[in-house]
Amino acid sequence: MTATSNAAAGAATLMPLLIHLLRGASDLASVSATHAKLLKLGAASSVASSNHLLAAYGRCGCTALARHLFDGMRDRNVVSWTALMSGYASAGRPRAAVALLRAMARSGVPPNAFTFSTAASSCARLADAGLGRQVHARAEVAGYACDSVVSTALVDMYGKAGRVGDARAVFDAMPVTARNAVSWASMLSVYAQNALGHDAIQLFAELRTNGEDMAPNHFMLSSVVNACAGVGRLGIGKCIHGMVLHHGHEDNDVVAVALVDMYSKCGIYEYSKKVFDRINQPSVIPYTSIIVATAKYGLGRCALALFSDMVGRGVQPNSVTLLGVLHACSHSGLVDTGLQLLRSMRSEYGIDPCASHYTCAVDMLGRAGQLEAAFELADEAQVNGNDALMLWSSLLSACRNHKRLDLATMAGQKVSEFTQDVAGALVVMSNAYASAGQADDAAAVWSNMRRRGIRKDPGCSWIEIKDISYVFYAGMVSPAGSRAGEVMLLLDELEGKMREKGYKGRIGSARVLDADEEEDGNHHHQEGRGVMVGVHSELLALGLGLLVIPKGMAIRVMKNLRMCRDCHEAFKVISAIVEREFVVRDLNRFHHFRMGSCSCNDYW
């Protein structure tokens, strides 16, 4: 046997081993060493070897080396182009990945399903529906649009770009036999990520009905659990938890974190804590989730204990974790602890405070009545855009709560400089003037809002009874259906008993408006009967809950805005009168009312 034939035999023997090493390599040193060995063997120039090298360099994030290799290839096939495209996408260069698809078309190499799915996923990272439509059109022309992998990537792309209707159209166009677990999970995730929880729940019901024997995977289950959290559907969430246990996904971190979040947002912190306690060696994400949940319940010292346990276990907190701890301090009046954390974030954890941390700290000072210090910190933060709007809106609300009209006016001037998403803050400013007896100034704020075309989203509250949500708006008792009259009578009766307890306010009048009546110039009601003038939505939801939810069970009410002080006081008094527990989730936190007191201790 000649030396040449011996070398060829050696190369043939080594090649499979080297290719195997490339497939498993994830660091540059290993890939470069294997590349050198292939060059020494004279086997690096083949299309197959070059493709493996392209993929390996891409996994290492070395797109420059991958591109240099690609440009030097004499022959390129679809795998070559797709490997480089995937490398760009993985390295956070999605536009470069999509540009390769166009260059590929000019080269005459036809793309395959994996090429289109990689391009669509790159568009998803960009949240660029326009670019995604171009990829979609190319996939249609090439005949790959109905491929399950491509369709699933397109569903995800449209969802990330906020085009939920387009995502559903792609999903519905898929042949039923092509819809697999990943396809269903992707569509469920689109609904959950776009705050369309009811649609996600409905789609999951379709899967259970039409999905034959398809077992839900952990991606599906986590998406549906997140949907239940978003819309406060505790009953369905419990059912999904049962499925999690049945299918053996209880040890999955993604599902566990979703369950922690769902139970906390549905008003059962104890269940959240139980789910968390069953996680073996929780990472930063489960810890962050339970700390945020604990903060929203006003359990500041519990949140700090969890944080201490987390750090003690060597789990490095992230920016969101520290924001959760700051929220806990804010909602529990732990001002000194919160400020100490803000000042030590960089030195202790290597994290620079961002606008959200400063806003939370300003909110914390405002809640505690330290308004001058809050203003100083607001000026120090030097935030811009929407972050600045949130900061000054929070400060304006604190000024109004502490009856500091002088400072409220200063914060209101800052807020009025913005043009979007200012309705809530301007209403707070109007209420601050009204509370100070300056009716003309309050009216001027409303007049300015009308002139600028600014409308406030209507407040609503909902309560879940036997897996059905009943949604109430201020003054509208009609969602209670046939029991609307009983709700009005019950609230009237409760108001009388509240006065006997020394309650000074009013929860509203039980007068039923005629079809053509309206409450005042600023509040208009839909036509028809079933209106209680002045009654806020959470009280109407509570009234229905008192009628139909058995004693011994807590009544849980969800609200899309912050609970007002008058309703907060009313809930406290009513909880003592009827000797029942109420849990209210508002925009900021949870309130647990029991025997005349609230868990927030007025830090809300």
UniProtKB/TrEMBL annotation:
UniProt organism field: Oryza rufipogon
Q: Where are the PPR repeats?
A: 77-111, 180-214, 283-317
What biological-process terms (Gene Ontology) are attached?
RNA modification
Return the Gene3D superfamilies for the record: Tetratricopeptide repeat domain (1.25.40.10)
The protein in question is named DYW domain-containing protein
Q: Which domain of life is it from?
A: Eukaryota
Alphabetically sorted, this entry's keywords are:
Repeat, Signal, Transit peptide
PANTHER family, per database record:
PENTATRICOPEPTIDE REPEAT-CONTAINING PROTEIN, TETRATRICOPEPTIDE REPEAT-LIKE SUPERFAMILY PROTEIN
Q: Which NCBIfam families match?
A: PPR (TIGR00756)
InterPro entries given in the database record: DYW_dom, E_motif, PPR_At4g14850-like_plant, PPR_rpt, TPR-like_helical_dom_sf
Record GO terms (molecular function): RNA binding; zinc ion binding
Domain named DYW: which ranges? 526-604
Signal sequence extent: 1-24
